[in-house]
Amino acid sequence: MLRECKIIVAKTAGFCFGVDNALKIVYNKLNSRHNVATLGPIIHNPNVVSDLEEKGVKAISLDEVSAGQGQTVVIRSHGVGRAVYDELEAKGAEVVDATCPFVARIHKLVFEHTKNGGAVLIAGNASHPEVEGITGHAAKGGRVFVFDGESELRKVISENKLEGSEVLLVSQTTYNKAVFEECAGTARELLPGVRTVGTICDATARRQEEAGELAKNSDIMVIVGGRHSSNTKKLAEVCSQHCRTLLVETAAELDKKDFEGAHRIGISAGASTPAYIIKEVQQTMSEMTKTTEEEVFNFEEELEKTLKKIHTGQKVEGYIIGIDANGEVKVDIGTKHTGYIPAGELTDDPTLKPEDVVKVGDTVDLIVLKTSDSDGIVTLSKKKVDAQKGFEKIVEAKENDTALTGVVTNVVKGGVLVSAGGVKVFIPASQATARRDDDLNALLKKTVDFKILEVNEGKQRAVGSIRALLREKRALAQSEFFEKAEVGQVIEGEVKSVTEYGAFVDLGGVDGLVRKADLTWKRIKQPSDVVAVGDKVEVTIKDIDKETGKVSLTMKKDSENPWTIFKSQYEEGQTISAKIVSITSFGAFAQIIDGVDGLIHISQIANKRVDNVSDILKVGDEVEAKIIEINDEQKRISLSIRALLPEEEAEEAAETAEE
Fold it and tell me: Known catalytic residue: 130?
């Protein structure tokens, strides 16, 4: 006895866009012309071909096109080579091109590459009409090689000596995706620099992936489609790796014995299989497995349903299926179209990569920017949806007086533009920085916090202020600083400006002044010799005036005080080496250590009378001298060169000095 079981139909089963488009073209031509023919079966499905024959559309070969008979010849979605177009034109036939746009893209790639002398490798069945059409678009004398599988690829590369050539690798649109990826890896291994373009139709790839996943969780898979259909056979091959798989063209081929003991049955169908046949198969299987379902089928109605109409401005839900190297995102929007989000329509934030915004498998809301039924392509925008949602947050932030975060994307006349939640907010120059003379370009691509000042909901525009929030933060920081700050406290800050009399340091909401004399123990000509704007410095609070908000700072450290260092290393009577740093009328100053000088009085320079100090000493001279006095209170040091002279000479010098 048969048990009831669950029957699941794959979401992507049935007509792809290319087949849909080709059939629509044929049926539309039937309404206006009577002498309509297709160059070969319009699709690999005997039921559809029979239906068209009953309506007067014959599938003919190129030889059967009658010259001068005014035939309308439809080129099917598989496409044909360039020579076929030329012959049809020579016979005077009206050509209606129903080539799938994804196949036409491969034609263009092959022609452009071979035109420039490159070689092309095509993964596919050499006898398949689509592959024959692709090879027929090579430029005159172009090198094109067809292979099926990794072993054939190795053989083609070896026999044709393609190493070192400019090689393009493409595939038949219905080729097995897993096999192509394996071949692409081999090609990159054997042909460094090979250009690989993924030309497997998205619908085909999705159909294979979905069917494979369904097969993994099914007892039996039923694949519906023509036995001569390449993509249908590949679909069956993919599923047969996971469970028992049946390939049928119609419901009449089903046998209930095949489903005995099955609890879960999956159904998928090739790109050439009409929806009504899939439904008939599903209904028949439901009856065989003790489930019931009744529905009346009309071929043309079902065909019409497979291509859901969409329009510009429509909001749709999209499933992310891929991100290419140029940042363009491929999307499934639930129709037979292929959706694309250009990189510029993904986000307004220039700091983000496409992978930061969306990932394969995400479901996102989108707005339709443009549709092209002839190409089967829909151009979509995520940032416009984000902008709609973002503006609601802008209005809410204005009402609640809350802050927002965004990225500065542009510096424009009179201010900057900040992107926040997909909305561009204008920040006037007067509201963009803490100081009016700050460079606006320094904000570019920076993340900033701001408040909303004005909102125009009608025009979807907003004006904000970075400065208003900076002032609030600064006022709060100032309050916290003066509550905690104490004289003698050591704190880290950033140099904000440097003047001739000192440097202003930002302590976090409060600017403190380090005067020139407090910058260092060393002698300096100007503050810029020690610090520059942007430097991180450690300072000590010397004085605080909470009423005026003034803070006096020093960068000097007691441990670095030259006088303290001197006292720890030197004493009276000690002989030292010193460097003359200045000359005066009464003597010379010599540097003992950095920051400590001693005076050599004119009477202590030589053993004879000295009228002019510069006759004996010069700035830069290194001299030996004796410390004869240290005045700790006045921090003065007296040195003597004379004291180191021989005793007789010193006495003579003393007498001379007295005279």
Answer: yes
Task: Give the CATH number of domain 102-196.
Answer: 3.40.1010.20
Indicate whether 305 pLDDT > 60. Answer: no
pLDDT at position 436 is 75
Mean pLDDT of the chain: 85
Is there a contact between 240 and 232 (Cβ–Cβ < 8 Å)? no
| 630-648 residue pLDDT tens | 998 888 999 999 999 876 5
Looking at CATH, the fold of the domain delimited by 386-463 is given as OB fold (Dihydrolipoamide Acetyltransferase, E2P) (2.40.50)
pLDDT of 2 over the 60 cut? no
Q: For the full predicted model, state whether its pTM sits above 0.85.
A: no
**DSSP per-residue codes, 326-347:** TS-EEEE-SSSSEEEE-GGGT-
pLDDT at 405 over 80: yes
Query: Is the pLDDT reported for residue 576 higher than 90?
Result: yes
Instruction: Sketch the domain layout of the chain as residue ranges.
Output: 17-97, 102-196, 202-305, 315-380, 386-463, 485-559, 562-658
d(CA 210, CA 208): 6
Q: If pLDDT is split at 50, 70 and 90, which confidence band does 122 have?
A: very high
Q: Regarding the domain with residue range 485-559, which homologous superfamily does it belong to in the CATH classification?
A: Nucleic acid-binding proteins (2.40.50.140)
- Extract the tokens encoding 607: 């053993």
Look up residue 215 and give its two tokens. 């097969």
Q: Determine which one of 4, 53, 94, 130 is catalytic.
A: 130
- Domain 562-658 bears CATH identifier 2.40.50.140: yes
Enter the tokens of residue 217.
Answer: 């969780």
Looking at domain 202-305, which CATH architecture does it have?
3-Layer(aba) Sandwich (3.40)
Model confidence pLDDT, tens digit, residues 550-570: 999 999 888 888 898 899 899
3-state secondary structure 100-168: CHHHHHHHHHHHHHHHCCCEEEEECCCCCHHHHHHHCCCCCCCEEEEECCHHHHHHHHHHCCCCCCCEE
Element (H, E) at 302: helix 299-305
How far is C-alpha 68 from the chain's CA centre? Answer: 57
Q: Identify the H or E element spanning 20.
A: helix 17-32
